[in-house]
What we know:
- The protein is an all-alpha fold.
- Helices cover about 70% and strands about 0% of the residues.
- The protein is built from 6 helices and no strands.
- The protein has helices spanning about 1-10, 20-30, 35-50, 50-55, 60-70, 75-85.
- The longest helix is centred in the first third of the chain and has 14 residues, at about 20-30.
- The two termini are about 20 Å apart.
Amino acid sequence: MERLMREFLEISFVALLSPDALLFVWDHCFLYGWTDTVPAMVCCDIILLSKRSLVNFHGDVIECLEVLKKNSFEITTRQLQEVSERSE
Length: 88
């Protein structure tokens, strides 16, 4: 999980989210800090929202990123807002 989160941060969530959702995430990361818990929560939110794609997944981190990238436009800004509101 740690390695997957590092990969998310190295690419700054680009290609994992639609442009609108990406800007929403970047806004929060710049407002609250890239070293705070926000990026970690976003990583968890992306995995949670992608659970249908990952339910039968068996592979390494790079393969997991590829699965997430293929489904990147399925995650909307509204979904991220709803998930983050529930976790507060």
